[in-house]
Amino acid sequence: MLRILKSFAAVGIAVGALTAAAHAADVKIGFVVKQPEEPWFQDEWKFADIAAKEKGFTLVKIGAEDGEKVQSAIDNLGAQGAQGFIICTPDVKLGPGIVAKAEANGLKLMTVDDRLVNADGSPIDSVPHMGISALKIGEAVGTAIADEIKKRGWDIATVGAVRVSYDQLPTAVDRVEGAITSLKAAGFPEANIFDAPQAKTDTEAALNAATVVLNKHPDVKHWVAFGLNDEAVLGAVRASETVGITPDNFIGVGIGGADSAINEFKKPAATGFFGTVIISPKRHGYETALNMYDWVANGKEPPALTLTAGELALRDTYVDVRKSLGIE
Ligand code: FCA
């Protein structure tokens, strides 16, 4: 009898495995990002692709730079029989519209990086989200800058700071506010922090915004810069170069750690891009894709909110930090 039961169990497992495999091939998941040309998002896609290969589902990658493209991306996914998608939206205020569109197309919805908001600006907490611990990571940026100011022996009261800002995005506000908190705790005067609002979250927009600030304060000798990502800080670094500030007078610390930062670290001579807090495209790409797959295939809903950590890396440590995060 025991033997019969055992063989039944074996058949059961085999059949179970077969249905799971057949099911995986039917699963189609979208991964929509706001800036497909940005290395961070390419890395997210790369890691999501690994999850798709591992589990055997189809991953549909779509770039959607504005609201209209988001709408058509969702309709498109619905039309091709996808069951769910992950999105980093170009505008968090599209939140209610995205939720409605996903529902109309029968698609499960999860967000990554940028969390959708309601009309009143509060987060839409019914949509599972994975983002970075923005305040904490911002604080790490501020601490890294403050430590380096000390190391260089600058008088902190005379240093200028470029706050490259994108205040319509809550995670961006948290990141720069975190940096400011640490800087102020280290004695940085608030009056020396100058806002450089960028029109878009890319390097060019940050360069334009930072140039205005630097030109307005030609008397300031030492500068630091922070922003929501590496691109924002790289923009400030490029701006410093165009107005003739040398790297020994500039400390920029970004957030990200993808190719934008790495290419800068690989340059033969150090630039004003001093460091970056590396965040994990593996968690944000691979893990979100797996979460969505588990939801579609096994009915297991993703955690409502996951906030991931970051780790500071400099020119001479980034290789090791990336290795330790499993993203090398
Ligand atoms: C936002 C930024 C990206 C990246 C991501 C984690 O979407 O725009 O550059 O930092 O958060």
UniProtKB/TrEMBL annotation:
Site feature (The binding site for the sugar molecule has not yet been established, but C-87 may be involved) residues: C88
Subcellular location, principal: periplasm
Keywords from the UniProt entry: Periplasm, Signal, Sugar transport, Transport
SUPFAM superfamilies for the chain: Periplasmic binding protein-like I
Biological process, per Gene Ontology: L-arabinose transmembrane transport
Periplasmic binding protein/LacI sugar binding domain mapped to chain residues: 28-304
Residues making up the signal peptide according to the UniProt record: 1-24
Location(s), subcellular: Periplasm
Cellular component terms (Gene Ontology): outer membrane-bounded periplasmic space
Keyword Transport: yes
Any one GO molecular-function label of the UniProt entry: carbohydrate binding
Gene3D superfamilies associated with the record: 3.40.50.2300
Family: Belongs to the bacterial solute-binding protein 2 family.
Record-linked PANTHER family: D-XYLOSE-BINDING PERIPLASMIC PROTEIN (PTHR30036), L-ARABINOSE-BINDING PERIPLASMIC PROTEIN (PTHR30036:SF6)
Protein name, as recorded: L-arabinose-binding periplasmic protein
Organism whose genome encodes this protein: Pleomorphomonas carboxyditropha
